[in-house]
Design brief:
The protein is of the alpha+beta class. Helix content is 29%, strand content 26%. The protein contains 6 helices and 19 strands. The chain has helices spanning 7-32, 58-62, 66-71, 102-106, 248-306, 368-379; strands at residues 35-36, 41-46, 54-56, 75-77, 85-88, 93-96, 112-120, 125-134, 142-145, 155-158, 167-170, 172-174, 184-191, 197-199, 205-208, 219-228, 235-244, 334-337, 346-349. The strands form 6 sheets. Strands 1, 2, 4, 7 and 8 form a 5-stranded mixed β-sheet that branches. A 4-stranded mixed β-sheet has the order 10-17-16-13. The longest helix is centred in the C-terminal third of the chain and has 59 residues, at 248-306. It is flat.
């Protein structure tokens, strides 16, 4: 049966193989050609140093001259694939070449260090150098139990008959840092009833500090904070749900309602914020529109007030016909002929006065009725004023 190799396992295998191969080559090379120096240099630096940071003055510590470094073509020889240090031959110093992560380099192994050698030619010399990596508090604690789930709700059950010191659960956390940076402490930050539970400072155990009674709420919510001992300290927070009940159906009903209430409150808050935003936007929009209209009308009134153009009155169509009275738009003459029987009466309508062009002198004092009567006399065939 063939097993598929995990990429991480393969990388570790090739890394170990490279180290072994480099060590063997260096041993053979040293044994045959190289004079190994007695002095061994050790440096201690913190992890996560920036690239180019000073590690130490290798020329001064080895008692070498800068001319010797340049003439001997001094360089670093290492079996590692990654070169974490760099030699500056012009200054005789060692600097950080790549960022060093102690957890990635050594894992849980303490102390953490890596070794390389300074090689010089004419004559050939090898000077071993060891660099110790000091751990920094760059990782917060990681909570392993209880598992924090987003959708489901996990609760620890406590019977109502529980006595003082009853072990409810234990918070389990780890820190990948080393030394005192990995020392963890547990504190109870919030609780539904702080007089009912306590958390062990060193072990994270949650226990009852008094006897459980029937008056205690079924749903208990505890917030535990986990802190490390680094400087500055890093922390993680875990929420522990505790159900004070004697039967599982009671716990299920209570915590189902709790979850639904939480979702309802979250939805209600969202809709309230959305409604407030919409109302605020509409109010601001209306206010801007009203102010804009007011400013526009004010500017128009100012323009008309300062204008020197003559005012031209506007006359509606057939303005000259407005001398007529009544509901008709034109002036008509009516001749009514009546008989004894009103149903056989005839009405004769005259010609509208507006059909002829009428030129009036402003100094004239005549009326429209007089002009119409004269027009009727001229139109009659028996009129003495008619010219044949």
């Amino acid at each position: 049966m063939a097993f598929k190799e995990h990429p991480r396992d393969g990388g570790e295998r090739w890394r170990l193989f490279g180290r072994l191969r480099g060590a063997v080559c260096l041993f053979i090379f040293q044994f045959i050609f190289v004079h190994h120096a007695e002095a061994q240099i050790r440096y201690s630096i913190p992890e996560e140093m920036k690239k180019g940071s000073l590690v130490g003055n290798i020329a001064q510590d080895l008692g070498l001259d800068l001319k010797r470094l340049r003439s001997g073509r001094a360089r670093i020889v290492t079996g590692e694939n990654i070169q974490y240090a760099e030699l500056k031959t012009d200054k005789g110093t060692l600097v950080v070449h790549e960022r060093i992560d102690r957890e990635q380099l050594c894992g849980d192994v303490t102390p953490c260090s890596f070794t390389f050698e300074i090689l010089l030619e004419k004559p050939m010399e090898l000077h071993p150098v060891t660099i110790m990596i000091q751990d920094q508090n760059d990782n917060p604690p990681q909570v392993l139990y209880p598992v924090q789930t987003g959708g489901s709700l996990v609760a620890e059950m406590v019977p109502r008959s529980a006595d003082v010191g009853y072990l409810v659960t234990k918070v389990v956390a780890v820190d990948v840092d080393s030394g005192q940076n990995a020392w963890l402490s547990y504190k109870l930050q919030k609780a539904t009833d702080r007089a009912l539970f306590e958390v062990g400072l060193q072990n994270g155990e949650i226990r009852t500090i008094r006897q459980v009674t029937d008056k205690d709420a079924v749903k208990q919510r505890l917030t535990v904070i986990v802190e490390d001992n680094g400087q500055p300290s890093r922390s993680a927070t875990v929420i522990v749900n505790v159900a004070v009940a004697d039967s599982f159906p009671e716990v299920l009903s209570e915590f189902t309602d709790f979850t639904q209430d939480k979702e309802y409150n979250d939805n209600l808050t969202f809709y309230l914020v959305l409604a407030l935003a919409v109302v605020s936007f509409l109010f601001i929009t209306c206010l801007v529109v009203i102010i804009s209209v007011k400013i526009y009308r004010w500017r128009q009134s100012r323009v008309m007030y300062h204008s020197n153009l003559p005012v031209i009155p506007y006359y509606p169509p057939r303005y000259s016909d407005t001398l007529g009275t009544g509901t008709l738009q034109h002036v008509y003459n009516y001749e009514v002929c009546r008989t004894t029987d009103s149903r056989k009466s005839d009405c004769k309508f005259g010609i509208a006065g507006s059909q002829n062009v009428l030129i009036m002198d402003p100094s004239s004092t005549g009326t429209m009725q007089r002009i119409q009567s004269e027009k009727s006399i001229l139109d009659e065939p028996d009129s003495p004023l008619e010219v044949s």
